[in-house]
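Below is a filled-in request sheet from our internal design queue. Each sheet records the structural input a requester submitted and the sequence that came back. We keep these sheets so that new team members can see what a complete request looks like end to end.

REQUESTER: design group, bay 2
PRIORITY: normal
MODE: inverse folding
CHAIN LENGTH: 388
BACKBONE (tokenized):
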């Protein structure tokens, strides 16, 4: 979430007005326009005005297909809540404390038991975790839900996860005392009307669409002049499984006398791009390639130039890497092409030059990263891979 003075006030007002009317709403706008804040404002207001003696229970549910984004939103949500508390103290006005809980596959059992007995007002979670919650004894804590926010809805609607989520939304509706308001958020959703029907089911959905045509800065770079006959680069042999894997993927001989394939040229271009930008994300197709490419780039650069980010990395390490990239402490990361990466590149700030590179078929994740490709100083580069 971004500070209010940096948001698109027109969008926040229009989005909030639509949500305040109480019907299901789909908000479509570029990254950084204030979609998440607009979606949360009414829910936070209702939580703050809930009587102190009201029964405990979850009142707002935020769902994201990105586990990392769940933690990011939770952190950013605490800031305005703390600010509201400080402002109320300055005005000497009593205010209800709003508690935010996280529920993902990484949540420890002790914390889950605590949430079952002492549920927070706002639950930040994933579609899979809400499904499990609806099938447990803790589902009784969901009866008071009045708002459900579905972020990155474009990544869910056309997939099996979306079908799964649609079922969970209907189960939640039947469980609650009153039908919860559904709020969908996206920067890249198309077609808007189809996704609105997915969000609302049989209910009418109001669409607030302030999306604009992206200004793309897209380059397609061929690493070598002839990809079918790449040059051979003489270099000393390397040992270990990385050599074998690189040999398998690049199609070069393993005798150590030459480095045949497009990878030597790719390495050079990637290192140059990372050093030319203050924040760079490189998308690849698999976790194994992610680790091997990270190691090879760091070897050639002679420093820890990039870090690996994928689902097998611990939650603590993923958080450290994401925060380091956004803060400028890490120049670049190599990430898998799944939805494991929850970084909004808009969060790097307009003063950063931002580069996003994807190799071969990894581009679906690149399209989802940061919402609006090419927006706000991002440079996108596609390096095609030779067919195998």
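RETURNED SEQUENCE:
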């Amino acid at each position: 979430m971004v500070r209010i003075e940096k948001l698109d006030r027109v969008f926040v007002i229009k989005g909030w007005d639509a949500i305040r009317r109480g019907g299901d709403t789909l908000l479509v706008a570029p990254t950084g326009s204030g979609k998440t804040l607009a979606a949360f404002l009414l829910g936070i207001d209702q939580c703050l005005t809930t009587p102190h003696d009201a029964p405990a229970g979850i009142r707002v549910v935020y769902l994201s297909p990105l586990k990392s984004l769940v933690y990011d939103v939770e952190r950013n949500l605490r800031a305005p809540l703390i600010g509201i508390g400080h402002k109320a103290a300055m005005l000497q006005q009593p205010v209800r404390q709003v508690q935010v809980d996280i529920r993902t596959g990484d949540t420890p059992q002790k914390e889950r038991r605590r949430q079952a007995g002492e549920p927070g007002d706002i639950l930040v979670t994933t579609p899979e975790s809400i499904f499990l919650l609806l099938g447990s004894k803790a589902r009784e804590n969901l009866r008071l839900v009045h708002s459900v926010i579905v972020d990155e809805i474009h990544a869910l609607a056309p997939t099996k996860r979306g079908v799964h989520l649609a079922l969970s939304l209907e189960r939640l509706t039947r469980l609650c005392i009153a039908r919860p308001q559904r709020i969908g958020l996206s920067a890249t959703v198309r077609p808007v009307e189809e996704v609105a029907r997915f969000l609302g089911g049989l209910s009418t959905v109001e669409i607030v669409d302030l999306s604009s045509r992206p200004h793309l800065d897209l380059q397609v770079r061929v690493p070598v002049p002839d990809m079918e006959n790449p040059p051979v680069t003489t270099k000393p042999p390397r040992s270990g499984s990385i050599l074998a894997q690189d040999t398998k993927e690049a199609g070069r001989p393993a005798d150590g006398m030459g480095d045949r394939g497009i990878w030597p040229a790719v390495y050079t271009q990637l290192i140059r791009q990372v050093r030319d930008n203050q924040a760079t994300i490189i998308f690849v197709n698999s976790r194994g390639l992610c680790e091997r490419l990270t190691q090879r780039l760091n070897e050639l650069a002679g420093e820890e130039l990039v870090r690996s980010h994928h689902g097998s990395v611990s939650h603590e390490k993923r958080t450290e890497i994401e925060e380091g990239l956004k803060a400028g402490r890490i120049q670049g990361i190599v990430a898998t092409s799944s939805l494991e990466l929850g970084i909004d590149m808009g969060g790097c700030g307009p003063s950063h030059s931002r580069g996003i590179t994807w190799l071969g078929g990894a581009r679906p994740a690149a399209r989802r990263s940061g919402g609006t490709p090419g927006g706000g100083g991002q440079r996108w580069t596609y390096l095609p891979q030779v067919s195998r």
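SHEET NOTES:
- The CA atoms of residues 2 and 32 lie 7 Å apart.
- The chain has a mean pLDDT of 79.
FILED BY: M.R.
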